Amino acid sequence: MKIIDPETGTRLDNKGPKLDPSLKKTDPLQRNVEKGLEDEENSPMDPPDAYGGTVIEDVPYEAMHPLLQRYMDDHKKGVEMVERFDKALARYKEQQYRMDEEISGDFHDFFEYFDDHLLDHNRREERQLFPLLHSKLVASGEHSIDETPRTAIDLMEDDHVKFIQLGALCFNMLGLAAHLHDARSAAFVLDASCNTGRELTELIRLHIHREDNILFPLAHKLISTEEFDRIAK
Fold this sequence. Notes:
Helix content: 55-70%
Order of helices and strands: EEHHHHHH
Number of helices: 6
Shape: elongated
Structural class: mainly alpha
Oligomer: single chain
């Protein structure tokens, strides 16, 4: 099939116009092909590491404002509780959902921490830090190009909502399974509960990583000490 180039009026074959030789030096796609880099795309079977290459700026803990330090101290406790809960879920599944005293204690401690500390930590971030940091990110151009600009704060708040959803789902399914008389149905519910719990723990880990290595360094950079002092009160 022949087509006409609307700009030059010349007839082209179905392979399209030939590349201008002068573009070879500037076209990144052409350079990649010539260098054998066309295979560097991320494959669905080999996605990029969610934790890799995400450090915005290496800000020492001691240089952070005390408000950010308190958040990071909370995160250390959170990681410890998440690790305990994650291992307890794995043991529970390996034992064919037979509960023992250690697993029961780990489950109890995690959900107590979840209700009394994690959700309170999230609310403090949403009240103190997020409103000001969102406006700073928009002002500095660190936002999406949507009509209503979205920033990293929107992602963090979405995570907070997912924590509540996944935590409630995991907890309620654990309780529901105990009231099911059919063993197969109970096993199905427990399996779904454990999978939901593992999804929750991975989301919390990634959330903490992003805040400690991306969000808080941005806050340190964009928010003045006087502004931190004001919102900390």
